[in-house]
Design a protein that fits this description.
The structure is a homodimer. The first copy, chain A, has about 190 residues and is α+β, with helices and mostly antiparallel strands. The longest helix of chain A has 27 residues, at about 115-145. In chain A, strands 1-8-3-6 form a 4-stranded antiparallel β-sheet. Chain A has a domain at about 1-115: Sandwich (Jelly Rolls), CATH 2.60.120. The first copy, chain A, has 9 helices and 8 strands. The interface of A and B includes residues 80, 129, 135 and 137 of A. Chain A binds a DNA duplex (30 and 30 nucleotides) through helix 9.
Chain lengths: ~190, ~190
DNA sequence: TCAATTTATTAAACCAGTTTAATGAATTTG
DNA sequence: CAAATTCATTAAACTGGTTTAATAAATTGA
């Protein structure tokens, strides 16, 4: 749990006793490649922390996969759309590799936030960070060209190209595998 | 300040005394059409609540306007990318109409969050709501076609088409005014 | 290890958007 | 109110993507 503790403490100071007791709310889940944490029609009851591996957050429509996000080591994730209001999810959370995940149940987390101002603050600050990251993503999506977004992904998350199949990366970039292939060819020619 | 108080209380219970005292941190700003709250190169020092009017959150690159968001009545807004780390903004926050805004300074807000667990909780929950709204936006941007996104905007925010010039809406949708014009023509013909 | 399956590339026809430029409509301002 | 400016539409040529289909390469598994 050391990485998780370090992560939490990176947001705000938390008393040792509080943090240790908070750790008891998390349980470890091991996933094989292809296993899911969440499927459409189910409710996201947990918040997750990814200790090891790679998880896709995606939708499947008419046989087509639409990737919204790839999660890799040391991030919190869940389908927040379902988690917040406990509504049925439309998404998958699926292991793209063997994964180790720490899961904390929504009720437990809410109780922690109520009981501890420090943890509530951690909750606010981590949500704020998630928001600003997503905002940067929206900026890229609305302002940058496919080419710029591809090049940025190569730069910022080169590991993804090793661990994730190409057609999922294409989906994440909002183009088809054919389009991605053409884009790459065009780039390599210049 | 009634709308703002109602807004805050919609997230979580807050003691009257705490809320009343919190209101003292806000000051009212009146903007004429075209005036800005923030310009590139400046730091976002305040969080804002929009009492009345319409604000664009946009960037200007090579003479081109790229709209990231339109804010209308009863929402919180700022350039969170600049606000969080107090870095220089790359964006404008500009009044598209005469506006009335309530401004609270970052230091004051942070102090409120530190002093009151209730307000900290409000901070977390409003940030969470902002995140889930933005996530829905990312979903639409990455999954839906221009046509679908246009039709959804017409349905969900019809007021924007009355109060905002067309070319800004085109920019928000990620297309050119020419493209929007063609899209509309195509739709009207079916 | 070899067969089956999945994934990546290429080609060709197509299309929804772009750019540039011109015109017309609407809004702003002296 | 007229003149100036800004904004919206249209046309024409172009382009970066799409779709479909075929082939090649890589991965999986019996």
């Amino acid at each position: 749990m050391e990485n998780l503790k370090t992560k939490i403490l990176s947001y705000t100071k938390i008393d040792d006793a509080v943090l240790e007791s908070e750790m008891k709310n998390y349980r470890r889940i091991v996933l094989q490649k292809g296993e899911t944490l969440l499927e459409p029609g189910h409710v996201a009851t947990h918040m997750y922390y990814l200790e090891k591996g790679c998880i896709s957050y995606h939708k499947e429509e008419e046989g087509e996969i639409k990737v919204l996000e790839f999660y890799t080591e040391d991030v919190y994730f869940t389908d927040l759309l379902s988690y917040v209001n406990q509504t049925l999810s439309k998404y998958y959370l699926k292991a793209l590799e063997p994964c180790v995940v720490l899961a904390v149940d929504k009720k437990g987390l809410e109780k922690s936030f109520s009981n501890s101002h420090q943890l509530e603050r951690f909750g606010r600050l981590s949500m704020q960070e998630a928001f600003t990251k997503l905002l940067s993503r929206v900026e890229r999506m609305s302002i940058r060209s496919n080419e710029e977004r591809y090049l940025r992904l190569v730069e910022k998350r080169p590991d993804l190209f090793q661990r994730v199949p190409n057609y999922l990366i294409a989906s994440y970039l909002g183009i088809t595998p054919v389009g991605l292939s053409k884009l790459r060819k065009r780039l390599s020619k210049v």
